User: Which sequence fits this backbone?
């Protein structure tokens, strides 16, 4: 096994035990980037020289007894919405041409303090306003979409081009590409991870979180980036304990909610089967399965769009007026549409969100976690505009991907996606675990218990699926 194939936890143990150096690990991942990046397009820019210098510094610090923890010496990527001092933050847009970040974001600073090694900035759908990331190709099948808007981060992790990465999630932008590329993605509780220095799509829906190869790795990254920051008005002061469940403990006493409505409607049969099989595996591990009804489902899409679109338009008000031609057509039309939404509709969306949060709070009196599909279908072809359903309805690719992920953004609850199998075309299927506010530890416990039953191949599937480089 090559160092780039290691999970974060495996690499951290090897570094701490003196079996692997940060320089060896970083060189291996950079070599992997050289090998596969021309076919995948995960990165906007790779800062190889700076990464090697940082790795050498981490190696010296660790040798001198200054080990900072599990992220020390671990190479990672940051979505190109996240400011790093002295590097551009392009947000995937010509609007940001010539932009240079002066100050580091809160999460970039925390990762640097933890000793993580920055490899570069990963592609995003322009200003995170999309679910496909067209610059990037799926790690399992280059003719398929990567998912978005954190597509570059998901593909980098799946293909061995980063040991972990950060993304952002406003309607599913961590979980959708994670599911489509067979990796783990965690959208934390709203306000748990600070967003200072992160380009906003919709300030009342935006989240920052990790994309990793395992559930354990997601917990390690979350532990480094979570916590209060006074520069983020939504920041929470009480991060949860993130301890891992003991191996072999099982899930006795855990109540898993299985939706009777919404989440299993209009989804691909192979996705439904893989997720229901995974839920059955949770029962075999000791969990109690509880049927639940998802409340206010008729308001989810309207509330999500009613909040996100006008907030995005407000953020882009100046540049939309002065240089509209610099936006891609798909993003420009959404931003222009936001200017037409009446204030009353925005306020009604706010009211609907309040009622939905109250209703979802009641769900978690009945269950500890909800298990459901992450997305309705696996990765679409890059030239595929829509998905058709047996009832005669049709959805755009973006609409179908956001449908099952948006509720956790509207309500602000944490949600974890992890791979649970493959469809007939060999493409990954993701299961979403949704918890109560600040319930990340439970999600990590349940997800980790399931993941432990899947075996080694499931963790490194994207790297195995990627065909060898030509020549």
Assistant:
């Amino acid at each position: 096994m090559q160092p780039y194939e290691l999970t974060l936890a495996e690499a951290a143990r090897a570094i701490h035990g003196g079996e692997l150096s940060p320089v060896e690990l970083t060189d291996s991942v950079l070599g992997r980037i050289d090998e596969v990046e021309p076919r995948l397009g995960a990165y906007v820019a790779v800062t190889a020289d700076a990464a090697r210098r940082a790795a050498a510094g981490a190696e010296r610090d660790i040798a001198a007894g200054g080990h900072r923890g599990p992220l020390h010496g671990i190479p990672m990527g940051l979505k190109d919405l996240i400011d790093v001092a002295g590097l551009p933050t392009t947000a995937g847009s010509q609007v940001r041409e010539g932009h240079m970040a002066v100050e580091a974001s809160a999460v970039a600073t925390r990762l640097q303090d933890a000793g993580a090694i920055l490899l570069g900035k990963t592609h995003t759908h322009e200003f995170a306003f999309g679910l496909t990331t067209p610059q990037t190709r799926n790690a399992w099948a280059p003719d398929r979409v990567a998912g978005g808007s954190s597509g570059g981060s998901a593909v980098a992790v799946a293909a061995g081009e980063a040991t972990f990465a950060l993304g952002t999630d406003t309607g599913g932008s961590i979980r959708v590409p994670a599911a489509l590329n067979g990796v783990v993605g965690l959208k934390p509780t709203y306000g748990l991870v600070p967003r200072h220095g992160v380009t906003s799509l919709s300030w009342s829906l935006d989240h920052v979180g990790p994309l990793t190869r395992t559930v354990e790795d997601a917990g390690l990254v979350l532990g480094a980036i979570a916590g209060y920051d006074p520069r983020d008005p939504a920041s929470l002061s009480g991060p949860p304990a993130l301890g891992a469940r003991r191996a072999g403990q099982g899930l006795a006493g855990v109540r898993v909610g299985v939706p009777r409505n919404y989440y299993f409607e209009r989804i691909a049969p192979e996705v439904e089967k893989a997720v229901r099989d995974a839920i059955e595996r949770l029962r075999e591990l000791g969990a109690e399965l509880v049927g639940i009804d998802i409340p206010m489902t008729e308001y989810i899409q309207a509330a999500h769009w009613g909040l996100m679109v006008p907030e995005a338009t407000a953020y882009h008000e100046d540049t939309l007026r002065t240089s509209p031609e610099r936006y891609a057509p798909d993003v420009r039309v959404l931003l222009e549409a936001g200017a037409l939404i009446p204030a009353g509709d925005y306020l009604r969306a706010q009211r609907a969100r309040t009622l939905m949060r109250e209703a979802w709070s009641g769900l978690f009196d009945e269950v500890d976690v909800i298990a459901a599909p992450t997305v309705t279908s696996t990765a679409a072809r890059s030239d595929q505009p829509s998905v058709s359903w047996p009832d005669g309805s049709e959805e755009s690719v973006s609409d179908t991907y956001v449908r099952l992920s948006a509720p956790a953004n509207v309500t602000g609850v944490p949600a974890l996606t992890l791979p649970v199998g493959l469809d007939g075309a060999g493409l990954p299927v993701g299961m979403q675990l949704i918890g109560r506010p600040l319930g990340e530890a439970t999600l990590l416990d349940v997800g980790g218990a399931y993941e432990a039953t899947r075996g080694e191949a499931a963790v490194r599937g994207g790297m195995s699926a990627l065909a060898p480089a030509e020549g």
Notes: The mean pLDDT is 95. The radius of gyration is 21 Å.
